[in-house]
Amino acid sequence: MSLPWLDVSTLSHNAAKWPLPCRILLGFALAGLVLLVGEALYLGPSRERLQALEVRGHALQQQLAEKTGLATSLEARADHLRVMEDKVVSLLRQLPAESEVPALLEDVARLAVANGVWVEGIRVLDEEPRQLYTEQPMQMGAIGAYHDLAAFVSALGGLLRVITVQDVTLRPEGALLRLDMLAKTYRGATPSGKARQTFESGPRFVYDPSTLRDPFLSPTLQAARVPGRPALSPDLTRPRGLLEGMTIDQFEMVGTLSNGVQAFALLRAGSLVHRLAVGDYLGPDHGQVTAIQDGYIELVELFPDDQGAWLERPRTLVLNVNS
């Protein structure tokens, strides 16, 4: 069985004589054929390119929004950066230009006495240069009760010079505790001829053991901590003398004088020699001369502790026989 020959020209010639529904179906068929060919050849690739351009345009819009936000805040960011740079420079200038280790050791001894802590030893380690400053580490060991040691470390943070405490260890030492720690002080690169700015410290943390317990003791053995040792407070309204503006380390005893009734000590500071009698004041810590001997003088200094009491410490200046 064979299909009859399909004569397209005959169909197209006789299409005008077709019934209306047939002609409509033929029109739809031709239109569908045109759409399929157009979709395959032109509309499909164009639609893919359009989708790719839309995705790229969306990404560019997001980048534009981000760049616009950065450009808007650029001035504020630059101002903030300048403020931070000025603050860093100011803080570095507040660091001492010299190590000041002797003065620091004196402060440590004062705070130890004020808090009832015995400093067993301080080992000054080699300086560690950094990019903008130099670290001066010190290995320190102290013995005392738990609250006393905590108050001592808190008082170190209250000093005018910057001190940080690291590598803290606690271990029993008989009935007390032993504290080993690495303390670091810092000095800047400020030239020695340039004046050092006053250090502006923030709010100071003060250790208050009144509501805390010693974690190394049983609750049944807890005892109230006495807020400092009572001592006579100095007369804070007394006018300070010229020699009280200098540290005692700046003086050396070079001799004594006596008129048969009263003895005087001769102390040299720089190129000047000063004469002191019993009862005179010396140094910034209310130091008062209590005795004058041929080979030494005795004085007593007063220090405030963190509990509102005053503590006294005796001190001796020995005659410099080589002066």
UniProtKB/TrEMBL annotation:
InterPro entries: PilO (IPR007445), PilP (IPR007446), Transl_elong_EF1B/ribsomal_bS6 (IPR014717)
Record keywords: Membrane, Transmembrane, Transmembrane helix
Gene3D superfamilies in the record: 2.30.30.830, 3.30.70.60
Spans through the membrane: 24-43
Pfam families to which the protein is assigned, alphabetical: PilO (PF04350), PilP (PF04351)
Superkingdom of source: Bacteria
Record's protein name: Pilus assembly protein PilP
Organism, as annotated: Pseudomonas synxantha
